[in-house]
Amino acid sequence: MHQSIKCSVMFKFIIPILISWLVSCEATAHGGGLNSEGCHNNSKTGVYHCHRGSNSSSFSTGTIQSVMSEDMFNLILARKLGGETEVTYEYIFGQNNAGSIRVDIVTDEYVIEGGKDTRSSLDSIQQSVFASTVTNKKPAVAIFDTDGVWGKYEHRIWAASNKLGVKFIWFSRGEIRKVN
Questions:
Q1: Of 22, 34, 40, 156, which one's alpha carbon is 20 to 30 angstroms from that of 6?
Q2: CA nearest 65: which of 136, 125, 4, 148?
């Protein structure tokens, strides 16, 4: 009887703990964090994929784009353009004051501020123009289409870019679709 109690305790408590530990070790062995959809971009291959939930099945391009982070878009576009992401530049202003600016994408010719097709991207033109004054490179903005539609934010940023002579890139469905 005493031996069967030990086995019962082991099967009820110790075995489930051991199994959950093994499963969690397997899950944490994978590099890179997951977004709220259980997905992430493999930085080595550039492939966006999912690990859990309903998203572990295949996606339409529009669905993938809607859950991708701005950093993922910047990384993909930088690779297409032969650029580098998240480059920081120091600058001096006033009397001995120092500041820095981080540029989303830097190529040999351009400093590019990238943003999703949302209201928060409306300041991308100012950021790229200021970065161009610090780097002596040409300013550019890249708007990342998340819904497959040329919307009001794409239009506003495109129109302002045209007026100011800032290069505009519309990145949709994994490709550069429009450039001015």
A1: 22
A2: 148
- Per-residue model confidence (pLDDT) at position 53: 45
Q: Which two tokens stand for residue 56?
A: 């572990």
Q: What does pTM read for this prediction?
A: 0.64
Mean pLDDT of the chain: 78
Q: Would you list the DSSP string of 96-117?
A: TEEEEEEEEEE-SSEEEEEEES
> What share of residues in the chain are helix, strand, coil (percent, to 5)?
45, 30, 25
CATH number assigned to the domain with residue range 69-179, chosen from the 4 options 1.10.10, 1.25.10, 3.10.620, 3.40.1350: 3.40.1350
- Domain limits of the chain? 2-59, 69-179
Q: Which residue has the higher pLDDT, 59 or 143?
A: 143
